[in-house]
Amino acid sequence: MKHRYSIFAESLETIRSHNKKGLSYTLGVDEYADMTWEEFSKNKLGAAQHCSATKKGNHKLKLTDDVVPLTIGGKQEL
Question: Which residues does the UniProt record annotate as the domain Cathepsin propeptide inhibitor (predicted)?
Fold first, then answer.
């Protein structure tokens, strides 16, 4: 229990310190204030996606020498 309280106390100090700066947004206490960033990211952010849209090297780009004309208002610019 002391461990959770010390994490909460550290979060509260971070919140108060941030809010004293007078920035355009403020921080506040929520149900996750007694979790470390590591605990929060592991338990609440979910696993990384491993699908075809997120895999490196999955998309093949074919380069060509084709020239695409630029158009402005329907008229071709040279």
Answer: 2-40
Question: Is 34 exposed, middle or buried, given 0-12, 13-18 or 19+ CB atoms closer than 10 A?
Answer: middle
Q: E-strand spans in the chain?
A: 70-72, 75-77
DSSP conformational letter for 56? T
d(CA 78, CA 10): 62
User: In this structure, what are the phi and psi dihedrals at residue 60, rounded to the nearest 5 degrees?
Assistant: -100, 125
**Residue ranges of the domains in the chain?**
1-20+31-44
Burial of 71 (0-12, 13-18, 19+ CB in 10 A): exposed
pLDDT tens digit sequence for 10-63: 999 999 999 999 999 999 999 999 999 999 988 888 766 666 665 666 556 677
Residue with tokens 């204030």: 33
Q: How far apart are CA 47 and CA 35, in angstroms?
A: 18
